[in-house]
């Protein structure tokens, strides 16, 4: 009997469906925002919520449960050290789904799945050291360099003393 077995089949066998869901979960943890079809987004949402709830608990057992789903120690570490603490003061609602239209090829409805509290990327602009100002005559010489100065150097006589 199929009592309370509510899950979408995605027209795939069980193993392929399981692999698809795992890869979507991994991508969401890595990038914190993914674009997928609406039905896939709705299918992975409860799984992501459970993983983040495990990360909030933070004990060894929950780490092992998360590893059994994700299958990667690096992702489990990121989930527990980076993503989980962001949601400590929140009880659910860790993800949101935005509809973004339809796919051009087959007309499937697309959605954007993202974590509600995303990591703020620190944009460090490399400051260039200020160059000392050169005399005006030197800067004029640099501006004049162009095509004709290159042509002059090609046709310049190398030995002026000998003919």
Word description of this protein:
There is one protein chain. The chain has 163 residues and is an alpha+beta fold. The chain has a domain at 14-115: Ribosomal protein L17 (50s Ribosomal Protein L17, Chain: A, Alpha-Beta Complex). Helices cover 50% and strands 12% of the residues. The protein is built from six helices and three strands; from the N terminus they run H-E-H-H-H-E-E-H-H. It has helices at 14-31, 38-57, 60-70, 73-86, 136-144, 147-155; strands at residues 33-37, 95-102, 109-115. The chain has a three-stranded antiparallel β-sheet with strand order 1-3-2. A hairpin with a 6-residue loop joins strand 2 (95-102) and strand 3 (109-115). Helix 1 (14-31) crosses helix 2 (38-57), helix 2 runs antiparallel to helix 3 (60-70) and helix 3 (60-70) packs across helix 4 (73-86). The longest helix has 20 residues, at 38-57. 13% of the residues are buried.
Note the gap between the termini.
Answer: 104 Å
**Count of runs of 4 or more consecutive helical residues:** 6
CATH T-level topology of one domain: 50s Ribosomal Protein L17, Chain: A
Taking strands numbered 1, 2, ... along the chain, how are they ordered across the largest sheet? 1-3-2
Q: Specify the CATH homologous superfamily of one domain.
A: Ribosomal protein L17
Question: Total number of β-strand segments?
Answer: 3
Using the CA coordinates, give the radius of gyration. Answer: 29 Å
At CATH level 2, the architecture of one domain is Alpha-Beta Complex
Tell me, briefly, the overall form: elongated
Average pLDDT across residues? 84
Instruction: Please state roughly what percent of the residues sit in beta strands, choosing from under 5%, 5-15%, 15-25%, 25-35%, 35-45% or over 45%.
Output: 5-15%
What's the helical proportion of residues?
A: 40-55%
Largest β-sheet summary: 3 strands, antiparallel
Going by helix content, strand content and strand pairing, the class is alpha+beta
């Amino acid at each position: 009997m199929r009592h309370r077995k509510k899950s979408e089949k995605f027209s795939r066998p069980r193993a392929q469906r399981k692999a698809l869901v795992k890869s979507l979960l991994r991508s969401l943890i890595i990038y914190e925002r993914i674009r997928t079809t609406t039905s896939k987004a709705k299918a992975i949402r409860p799984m992501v919520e459970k993983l983040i709830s495990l990360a909030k608990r933070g004990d060894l057992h929950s780490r092992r449960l998360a590893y059994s789903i994700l299958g990667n120690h690096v992702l489990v570490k990121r989930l527990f050290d980076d993503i989980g603490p962001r949601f400590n003061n929140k009880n659910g609602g860790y993800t949101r789904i935005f509809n973004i239209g339809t796919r051009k090829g087959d007309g499937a409805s697309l959605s954007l799945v993202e974590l509600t509290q995303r990591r703020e990327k620190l944009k460090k602009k490399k400051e260039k050291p200020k160059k000392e100002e050169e005399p005006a005559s030197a800067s004029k010489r640099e501006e004049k360099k162009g095509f004709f100065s290159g042509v002059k150097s090609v046709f310049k006589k190398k030995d002026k003393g000998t003919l």
